[in-house]
Structure formats: C-alpha cells, structure tokens
Write a structure and sequence with these properties.
Strand 13, helix 8 and strand 14 form a beta-alpha-beta unit. It contains 13 helices and 19 strands. The strands form three sheets. Strands 1, 2, 3, 4, 5, 16, 17, 18 and 19 form a nine-stranded mixed beta sheet that branches. Strands 6-9-10-11-12-13-14-15 form an eight-stranded parallel beta sheet. The protein is of the alpha/beta class and 460 residues long. It starts with a strand and ends in a 17-residue tail after the last strand. The radius of gyration is 21 Å and the shape is globular. Bound molecules: zinc ion. Zinc ion binds next to loops.
C-alpha cells in the first residue's frame, strides 16, 4: 500500500521545509520534491503542517485507583489520543506487593491487547523492590521495557522507601534503563492530610495545601541525589513547581543526566481552580496538585530553555458524577486523584506555547514527539519524519479555530478541565504506521491495530 502526502510543510524538531512524503506500507519510504507514485492514495497537504505523530509517555488507561477505575480504557483512551494527534502512548503497568514484574506487565498487556488503536508501550512501576525484582529488571529491558517508575508518594499503597529507590536506580544504571519518579514526600503529605481532615479542612482546595511545592522539591532532589550516586539517569514525571524545577536545573547544570516532564494542567490551570464553588474543585484534584499561578511562567520558560524536556499528560480521568464524588464530598483525601488530558495536549501546547510565543514550532514538535522518543528508547523509529521511520504522521491544520468542550471531545469522561478554552490548530489527518486513522471528525482506525512498542535503551 502506497500513500503520497503532497505539498505539506514538514516540521521536525530541527527543520521546516516543503516536501512530499511517500509512505510504503507502514514506513516512510521517500521524502522529496515533486514525488510521484503509481497507484498511491494521495493526500494533499498544501497549507498544512506535517508533524511526526505525537507521543504521550504518561497515560493511565484502565487503572484501578482509590476505590474505582479510570473512566477511559485502552480503546476509548487511544481513540481520544488519536483525535488529538497522538500516535503512541506509554502507560504504566503497576506491580502489586508479592507480584513479579512480569505478572504486572501481563495484566496490563491484556488490558491493551485487542483494544488499543495506536502503538503502546509500558513503564513498569515497581512497588516491591525484592532481590528477585532486581534480577527481573534485566529481563524487562530485554523485552522492550526500558523504563521503570517509582512512587515516592501515596504512603500505604504505591510508595517505596529510600532503600528501594536507591536499589532500583543502581540497577537501572547497570542495565541501561531509565527510572521515572513521582516526586512528592509521601510521609510528610500523609501527616499534613491527616491533620487537615481532622481539623475539618476537607474541601478540594485543601488537597493542594496538603501537598506544598516543598515536598515536591525535596523528593525530586532526593531522587536526583540518589541517581548521582547510582550513576543512573533519572526522569521526573509531572513536575509542577519552580521549586522542583530548580533541583532539576541544578543537576543538569552539573552535567547529570536528569530529565523532567510537565503537563498542560500545570502550565494552564492553578490552585484557583480548586477553589471553585461547591464541589467543582474536585475536577482538579490531582497529584502533585495545581500550584499558584506564578509557577506557570517558570514552567513555560523551562520548556523554552531546555531545563524541561517533555510535555506529557498524566491522563487519569474520573467522572465528576459517580467517581470524583463517590467518597470525597466530605473528605478531599478520598477524591480519586487525576484529570483527563490525552486528547487536548497538542491543542494547548500549540496554542498557548508556540502561538503564545514561548518557543518556536520546532521546539513544539521536540517537546511532544521527538524528546519522548529519544528519552524512552524508540527514536528514530518514531518521533521524527525520516526515511525508514514508522509512518506515524500528523497533518495539522494551523488555521482551524475551535473551542475545547467535553461535548466534542472523545475522552470517556463527563467534563473537560479546559471547557470553553479557544484554541487554534487541529489535526486534519492522522496516520498510524501508514494507515489513516483520523480524518477530520471521522475515526477510521481499528481497535487492536495498535501494537506493543518494544523499546530499546535510552538515548540522550
Ligand atoms: Zn501518572
């Protein structure tokens, strides 16, 4: 099968130029001007931008959490991702106490298989850092799982102690893997939460106050310090604050391989959203929490300067009615933590970041596609437009204007945190390994067409 994309402006992390792209089967076969191909399906991209399909390295589909399960599964979640221009995701397989990493992976593979419409990989979250797990980490790397996650928060469930953190980092350093860190000090958070609830401070706003930026900075700095001793790279997920960013910047300035992502919610929403009247603030309860507005400019600057490398989503949707309000109306600590975002990432980063003047279009592509592929071991198979790369392509209409609304998005959740936000730019056509899966408002993909993304060693 041949597809010829003509006259588009190709934009990668480094270049911008007008050329045609010939796709043969699932790969990019040729890039050049005035290409012709007998019998090819032709897509006219004149006036459009052609980007590598975007990559979201932080999603949660079908995640059991805080007494319920995320409202998107791998089918609805990846369809929503595709509509938003994302053609690969990395989700998290979570190891329970006493489980092997393989058991965790098998569980999540079964959730994705037959459902995902785009390619998917997994980070394995280590919950029980035993000697057996230490050995098994190498098997995971051999099988294409080249990153692991550790939670320094959620005391009593997902949180690991300092010993486990250090052991996992040291092992990752030996086997060429990346450790992803949820950086919040769970012990301190646990005390603050209990004190606030006991004092009757139970509304969603107190969720933010119970997890101040200092606890994020402390855990981030601790993970970075341990990584330095362990001689391992480290990647801080969903970084939210100037405080934590300073720790990452200091490490990077010293030449340490420390990396971090932030997410649109930390760039565009703030602690004020959690003060919305009634129970509305619950829509914005996530961890780490939303911050005071002034942090936003610091994060945007970090993306522009290179101190932050990636924008992911931490998509973890729970319905406002029936999930957010299940146990939490009288106690913020029982509100499922998380918010939707897998579909709205590019709209927001393009409109507010690139058009907003924070960085250029190449950096936009870098942040949402190229850096994720490089840091997680699948560049240049994905994350760029090059001969031989997978034909995951996003043909983007830079002039289309619309208003974000739950009514028109595809995420399976009953609200949109950005309801009413006006954005410019929209996917016109999305291809996953050479097949058109989204055309305007039509979904043309197929559940189960997404393949497991076997990743190689990290590249930076
Ligand atoms: Zn997450």
């Amino acid at each position: 099968m041949k597809t010829l994309i003509t006259n588009g402006t190709i934009v990668t992390a480094t270049d911008t130029y007008v050329a045609d792209i010939l796709v043969v089967d699932d790969k990019i076969a040729l890039i050049g001007q005035g290409l012709a191909a007998e019998g090819a399906q032709v897509i006219d991209a004149k006036g459009k931008r052609v980007y590598p399909g975007a990559i979201d390295v932080h999603t949660h589909f079908d995640l059991p959490f805080m007494g319920t399960v995320c409202s998107d599964d791998f089918e609805t979640g990846t369809i929503a991702a595709a509509f938003g221009g994302t053609t690969s995701i990395i989700d998290f397989a979570i190891q329970g106490k006493g489980q092997s990493l393989q058991q965790a992976l098998d569980t999540w593979m079964a959730k994705a298989r037959g459902k995902a419409v785009i390619d998917y990989g997994f980070h394995v979250a280590i919950g029980d850092m035993t000697e057996a797990v230490n050995a098994e980490m190498a098997d995971m790397v051999a099988g294409g799982i080249t990153s692991f996650k550790l939670f320094l928060a959620y005391k009593g469930s997902l949180m690991v102690d300092d010993g486990a953190l250090f052991k996992a980092l040291r092992r990752a350093g030996q086997i060429g893997a990346m450790i992803c860190i949820h950086g919040e000090n769970g012990d301190v958070v646990d005390i603050l939460v209990k004190e606030m609830v006991a004092a009757g401070k139970t509304t969603p706003y107190y969720h933010c106050l119970s997890r101040p930026p200092e606890v994020e900075a402390e855990a981030t700095g601790r993970a970075i310090a341990f990584a330095e001793i362990a001689e391992a790279p480290v990647y801080i997920v969903h970084l939210t604050s100037a405080h934590a960013l300073a720790r990452v910047k200091e490490a990077r300035d010293n030449g340490q391989p420390a990396f971090a992502e932030t997410c649109p919610q930390y760039l565009l929403l703030s602690i004020d959203n959690c003060k919305e009247p009634g129970f509305e603030g619950a829509k914005y309860v996530m961890s780490p929490p939303l911050r005071e507005k002034w942090h936003q400019d610091v994060l945007w600057s970090g993306l522009a300067s290179g101190d932050l490398q990636v924008v992911s989503t931490d998509h973890a949707p729970f319905n406002f009615k029936g999930q957010k309000d299940m146990f939490g109306t009288g106690d913020f600590s029982k509100i499922p933590n998380g918010a939707p975002g897998v579909e709205t990432r590019l709209y927001l980063v393009y409109s507010k970041g690139f058009l907003g003047g924070w960085f250029d279009e190449n950096r936009f592509v870098d942040l949402v596609a190229t850096q994720p592929a490089k840091l997680f071991g699948f560049f240049p198979r994905k994350g760029t437009i090059a001969v031989g790369s997978d034909a995951d392509l996003l043909i983007w209409d830079p002039k289309a204007k619309h208003t974000l609304s739950q009514a028109t998005l595809h995420q399976r959740v009953d609200y949109c945190p950005y309801e009413g936000t006006k954005v410019t730019g929209k996917p016109a056509v999305v291809l996953s390994r050479g097949k058109v899966i989204v055309e305007g408002d039509k979904f043309l993909g197929k559940p189960g067409a997404g393949q497991f993304l076997k990743r190689g060693q990290v590249w930076f």
